[in-house]
Hints:
Two copies of one chain form a homodimer.
Chain A: H1 16-25, H2 29-42, H3 45-56, E1 59-60, H4 61-68, H5 72-84, E2 88-93, E3 96-101, H6 104-118
Antiparallel strand pairs in A: 1-3, 2-3
Helix pairs in contact in A: 4-5
Chain A binds a DNA duplex through helix 5.
Amino acid sequence: MAETEKNLCDYLHVHDQIIADVNAQMPKEEVLFDLSELFKVFGDSTRIRILYCLFVSEMCVCDIATLLNMTQSAISHQLSVLKRNKLVKSRREGKTVFYSLADSHVRAMLDQGVEHVTEE
Amino acid sequence: MAETEKNLCDYLHVHDQIIADVNAQMPKEEVLFDLSELFKVFGDSTRIRILYCLFVSEMCVCDIATLLNMTQSAISHQLSVLKRNKLVKSRREGKTVFYSLADSHVRAMLDQGVEHVTEE
DNA sequence: CATTCATATGAACACTTGTTCATTTGTTGT
DNA sequence: ACAACAAATGAACAAGTGTTCATATGAATG
């Protein structure tokens, strides 16, 4: 491929002014990438269900697995994804590890999410 | 597999009360599924970038493709996903189809998203 | 310190998803 | 009606992701 444009639109009608305006106001690539990564973490039904469990109460891995009728391994893997993305935190108590939502931001996003889906 | 539980936790320590409480307060399966599907749509950097284009101005397929330096086909496919999920709407003007954000809800989610990612 | 239990982790596989390429649809202008 | 162009669509392929199975860690208890 060449440097700038390849076989995109050779279209001549392109609205240069709009493109310039939009381009000027677009957030940085990196911000948009991080944002999509964040949404991606929420975009899995198992993880969403886990988050909603923790919305109600802190829980250990085994309890979540029991409640969601899934294997301990699957839940543990997903919890590690959630933790890596700072959506949950954990605290150890003997052999048991209790997970909970990381902060109020996560609560807010979940709250708004359900609202959006249930209303209208 | 049996009916209720299979080879989950045979763990005896399960916290029955917590599980009962959480189970009682969990939103319906369907709601959580729809919610994860919604987040999934936001969870792709191409779609996020398209949405942010439209956040600034309505645009036609070709303009978006030019701005994002991607093929017309790729953009068109993604727009169809966004439209199917009611995040964007379109209006035809001759040969050109202009896309824009579907409603203020979408704006709000994007706004909150960037805030969350950029701050802190 | 060996055993047991709760959790974590690695590898593998099936499934999903985004892009490309080729083609089609639908609209305008001649 | 035909040519030209913007957009949409289908098939196919590559890359990413979630679960399972097997196993490892790490903490408590006897």
